[in-house]
Amino acid sequence: MKLSRRCFLSFGIGAAAGITLSPLPWKLTDDISIWTQMWPWTPVPPDGAYTYENTVCTLCPGGCGITVRKVDERAVQIAGMEEHPVNKGGTCILGNSGLQLLYGPFRVEAPMKRTGERGEGRWKRISWKEALSEVSSKLNQIRASGNPHQVAAVSGSKEGTVARLINRFMTVYGSPNFMTEPSIQDSYEAMLYLMQGATGSAGFDFENADYILSFGSGIIEGWGAPVRMFLANSNWRTKGTVVQVDSRLSNTAAKMDRWISIEPGTEAALAMGISHVIIKENLYNKGFIKEASEGFDQYKKLVLDAYSPARVSDVAGIDPSVIEEVARAFAASKHPIAICGRGKGDVPGNIHEFMAVHALNALVGNINSKGGVWTLPKNEYIRWPHPIMDKVASLGMQQERVDGAGSKDYPYVQSLLNRFPKKINEGSAYPIEALLVYNSNPLYSMPDTKAVQAAFDKIPFIVSFSSYMDETAKNADLILPNHTYLERYEDVPTPNGLQYPILSLAKPVVKPQLNTMHTGDVIIKLAKCMGNSISGAFGWKDYKGCLKQTLGSRWNQLYKKVYDVDSGFAPNKWVFETPSGKFEFVSSLVKNADENNIGIPHYYPTALEGDEKKYPLIMVPYGSMKRATGYVGSTPFMLKAVSDETLVKNDVLVQINPKTAQNLGLSQGESATLTTPVGEAQVKVNFNEGIRPGMIATPTGLGHTGYDEYMGNGKGVNANQVIGTVEDPLTGLNMAWGIRAKLTRS
Amino acid sequence: MKEGQHDQHIKKYGMVIDLDKCTGCGACMVACMQENNIPFQKDETDKMLSITWLRVFKLDNGKPYPDTDICYLPRPCMHCSGIGEHGHSPCVSVCPATATDYSMETGIVSQIYTRCFGCRYCMAACPYHVRHFNWWDPVWPSGMERSLNPNVSVRMRGVVEKCNFCFQRYQIAKEKAFTEGRTEIEEHEYQPACVEACPANAITFGDLLNPKHKVYKLKQDPRAFRLLEKLHTNPKVYYLSSREWVREAGDNYIENEKVDVEPKKH
Hints:
The complex is a heterodimer of chains A (746) and B (266).
Chain A: H1 5-21, H2 24-35, E1 50-56, E2 65-71, E3 74-80, H3 93-96, H4 99-103, E4 112-114, E5 123-125, H5 128-144, E6 151-155, H6 161-173, E7 178-180, H7 184-196, E8 200-204, E9 211-215, H8 226-236, E10 241-246, H9 251-255, E11 258-261, H10 267-280, H11 286-292, E12 293-294, H12 296-306, H13 309-316, H14 320-332, E13 336-339, H15 351-363, E14 373-377, H16 391-397, H17 419-426, E15 434-438, H18 442-445, H19 449-457, E16 461-464, H20 471-474, E17 478-479, E18 490-492, E19 502-506, H21 519-529, H22 532-535, H23 543-551, H24 554-561, E20 563-565, E21 583-584, E22 617-622, H25 636-641, E23 647-648, E24 651-656, H26 658-663, E25 671-675, E26 680-687, E27 695-699, E28 739-745
Parallel strand pairs in A: 6-7, 6-15, 9-10, 9-13, 10-11, 12-21, 15-16, 16-17, 22-27, 24-26
Antiparallel strand pairs in A: 1-2, 2-3, 4-5, 4-17, 8-14, 18-19, 19-20, 22-28, 23-24, 24-27, 25-26, 25-28
Helix pairs in contact in A: 5-21, 6-21, 7-15, 10-13, 10-14, 10-15, 13-14, 17-19
Chain B: E1 13-18, H1 27-35, E2 55-60, E3 70-75, H2 90-94, H3 121-125, E4 132-133, E5 160-161, H4 167-179, H5 193-197, E6 203-207, H6 214-218, E7 224-225, E8 237-240, H7 244-249
Parallel strand pairs in B: 1-8
Antiparallel strand pairs in B: 1-6, 2-3, 4-5, 7-8
């Protein structure tokens, strides 16, 4: 057959049309897309039996109940536990991404001993037996030389059985130097002691309150128990008024009913000004003042003499009418609460500010009553017999603490971690030979990182119990890794700020993934290695046994239900444990309370570090739920959620008012050098109209040097590198809410 | 699936997000990442490349201190049903591979990864920027693949992905209902991960057509608005805000833009 051109063309066109109309090309396209997607390296998560297990999250002191979804032995999701009264099914961003902390490669896989220089990252894996004998022989050696007090311990929390076990160990060993991470809880406790004579923590009946006056507290930024605060805030959106006093447009300031922008650090002045109006206009609760308070006349005189709205308006930079308006609204509300403690509450704060704010609660009589501020007794469920101390221990315990807490200079607090590095660097009365660090990362989370590092360099033996290769673990000599929170038992006491006592039990939801050991077990084992005088105080077989015995009859309920509310709890309305038995506006527990008004609520300007001429700006660190600042770092998922107004590539962006930036000749996104008396940092500039002119706000929770790149190693700057501490004159706690700074083009 | 093919009611799943309650905390974003096996990289600061099905945006009123105000706005896929509810959403209309489709049964805009060959027309068409392209193969740091959810397939390089209202949860709820001899699922049985996680209870999810569902009433709230209504995409995500500047920001206009005449009826 002869193939003509015509025939060839029609055949060709026919074939082309046929193929096009046939399913072939579509099938091929489909196949190609499938073939090019079925790569063996794309993980296919194995399926299995689904189970759900309830436990409690201990990543922060918020105490949320969580439900972990498992597929066979794999944990695949964390959700809030619906029935848990604290969070009612909600979770925060950190809690939700907690599985990344369980399965992350930045965990410490086994006990490690340093082989290279400190911080160099060269480690040798050792067995648990070796690790325990390393620590016990070192501690025995220090004790044998008669200096047990030269060992110090830092714990992330002061409550709970593990912290108490460490404290107990220190006691029978003979060292008073048991320190805990500071927070506003310390200031609240000191304030409650001074004004109410109470030894307990502050709880807030937010669920029944209808007017909240917050002096800079980050209600939706991590203050108190975060998820509980979110829920309370959502309720206030429909019933209740929240007024936020803040020198910056924080998230809280933006989301509340009203934002009062004041000069930074003048919160106490404003509180006193509001008092002035309430007293002058006779709006206070006369019953409370007459029956339940002491020293009101003296306080009244001070308030009326020195804090008129006109004077306060000069100090705080607001209109006098605003002070009057707020005072009237506060006093007219049925259940008003005034709260303080800035931002997330990481920095304890100025005790006189706490007293000034709490005096407002007293004026309206809203203390230990519905919708008010309650005092919660210390968690009393841990009732261990007093340990028997040998002579070495008794002598050691008589030594003064390095940080000075509890001494005659600082009688109102139990721990002053902020003073610890300073004392070591200055040359304390005695050196610290060994340091144990549990659930804490001081080399990252304490202000003035450089000074903390210098102090740690002076300590010859540092043991970290961290589950993760954080900054402190990286700089330790020995790491005895703890199980992560999803692999261990632990009692969880009442979360910060909750108004009723609740006890929860964290249970392991997965088997330990690595060669780790519960720190409770490590302490008990360590005690057993160290001879009778110490092991005698630790009669338990293991930590679980200790916990079970401690919780006694509550164990079964806790094991089944995860939480146990003390339903019989009710605050003693208007009953106080001060020497006068009343609420004391002038604290009789402070010697010479009149001298400079040291025992009376009042305002004085904070002496920020740095010379105003050399450092014309004020720098404040600011937190966010999206960036973890405590012992645990931000997870990879959290870093995904961090805004590009905060972090770009490896640069942190400091927030500055466009006007201030233009005066400095800086443009949006430009590189600059941030200098404070404490340190220097390379930053970028972000214009932010929410920042008061003359101020800079630096995000916290960035700039890790531990963990790994997925956890933000090398991303941004740790705000603690550029901020220092300012000691509160009465308590010794850190009250530095800011620092003087300058920002220059680099 | 054609309308009326089954004896069950046609649904139109949607969301109402209360911006007065939203605190911008980001828990929803992370819950979504964990549920949907979203990959992560060492650097996630380039938001054009960072894959987030649900992203929380920050809006501001543009006023100087101290009159400044900010508001956070979580943005999942809007699941546009288009004019006349025919499912002509911007992305579905342009997909040459039928990799994205509008379900008449649920009102969910799906994304079928194995059909997608990465032309990214849908990304260009989506006015809400909800779609993300996998420029790289997903790699989990050693050990971290253990937390992957078996109900969601891991996507690979070269495909587009987006929020699907946690459709796998709908399927699981349907299966459960089926085994129990029910044809309908309850409101609480199908809730996306973000809704479940939100600590502020700011997000509500349900069938917009079902008067018994909370969203039915909430979408009629006087504070309600939707994003870019002027485009007539007919989104199924409603926002609530008591602040007028926020509601106005929902339909943003460039300077001197000619404002559309009468909005079309949906």
